[in-house]
Amino acid sequence: MKFRSCLAAVAAAIIACTGDALAQQPIMIKFSHVVALDTPKGKGAEQFKKLAEERTKGRVKIEVYPNSTLYKDGEEMEALQLGSVQMLAPSVAKFGPLGVREFEVFDLPYIFEDFAQLHKVTEGSVGKLLFDKLQTKGIVGLAYWDNGFKDFSANKPLKLPTDAKGMKFRIQSSKVLESEIRALGGIPQVMAFSEVYQALQTGVVDGTENPPSNFYTQKMNEVQKYFTLTEHGVIEYAVIANKKFWDGLPADIRTTLEGAMKDASKYANDIAKEENDKALAAVKATGKTEIIALTPEAKAAWKKQLIPVHKEQEARIGKEVIEGVYKATGFKP
Ligand code: LMR
How far apart are CA 303 and CA 294, in angstroms? Predict the structure, then answer.
């Protein structure tokens, strides 16, 4: 009898102990992205991890996978929908293949003059409308993060839009970007970000477009002789999560993570411009890539060539969305 009660006590202790251990298992979040650590997005993701883990006192553990180490762009969206990864921060140019084409409004050439105009959209009704559209795809939009303004690079100097004629350019998976390259008389080629360096090196493509931070941290300056400050578009990110996972979090944890995201977003957006300025200075310092600044006349020529893409892509993006952006920024077509 004594032996039996002793056994029962041991069994109860084991069950209680296992239960406690299970209750204390941290909630794991995999956060995958495709850029280097030393970029606005790379740093933003690390900041979110830090704040989230500190504030949830270890109840949440975030594993950040930078530089396409877990998924390439093109693969990561499906992985998120399947729940193989819980968080991503893709550039908004990558939502078209998912069927949410309205995001491509951000890709329209010269639609934003500066970060202030961009924020009027991300923090306004258009930004919210776009996030609402993700819900039916099983995705929740958490925040918009900035990278910066894109410039064209190539192995020949692109001073005027006509210089791009006949050249092959790597682009992200966006129909608007396809149309942008065609407006220059170039040939667009969609390709994963992780493959761009090699494609430039081997001549599969002649040029590409990037903000300086991506150009420099992917070492593209080693394989591109010229970088023209066209500032013709933006790379903007949507930080997103698997909706089922996010909605299923304990309410207190979700609220804490939302707070961490708010603060990490402020941090990421505050450093974005400076990170790009530093990257441009670093590209200059390597002496491998010549930076071409545009005269006001040359800039006007790029705009004249590219702005017709707005009208051309109106049916795809939706007139209301484009007009919503014009209204927020004051853009006059
Ligand atoms: C690209 O594919 O060029 C960018 O979307 C990469 C990134 O995430 O900044």
Answer: 12
Residue 14 lies in a domain: no
Task: Tell me if 1 is assigned to some domain.
Answer: no
Q: Return the structure tokens found at 308.
A: 């017709």
Nearest Cα neighbor of 330 from 131, 148, 130, 121 is 121
**Structure tokens belonging to residue 224:** 């591109």
> CB atoms < 10 A from the CB of 20, how many?
9
Q: What is the CATH classification number for the domain harbouring 192?
A: 3.40.190.170
Cα end-to-end distance, the chain, whole Å: 90
Q: How far is the CA of 27 from the centre of ligand 1 (A)?
A: 28
Q: Please state whether the predicted TM-score (pTM) of the whole model is above 0.85.
A: yes
Q: How many structural domains is the chain composed of?
A: 1
Q: How many angstroms separate the alpha carbon of residue 300 from the centre of ligand 1?
A: 26
> Which ligand 1 atom sits nearest the alpha carbon of residue 39?
9
User: What residues does ligand 1 touch, defined as CB less than 6 Å away?
Assistant: 34-35, 73, 91, 147, 172, 193, 214, 235
Residue 81 falls inside a structural domain: yes
Query: In the Cβ-directed half-sphere of 213, how many Cα atoms lie within 13 Å?
Result: 25
Encode pLDDT of 79-130 as tens digits: 999 999 999 999 999 999 999 999 999 999 999 999 999 999 999 999 999 9
Report the distance separating Cα 200 and Cα 222, nearest Å.
Answer: 10
Q: Which domain holds residue 234?
A: 26-329
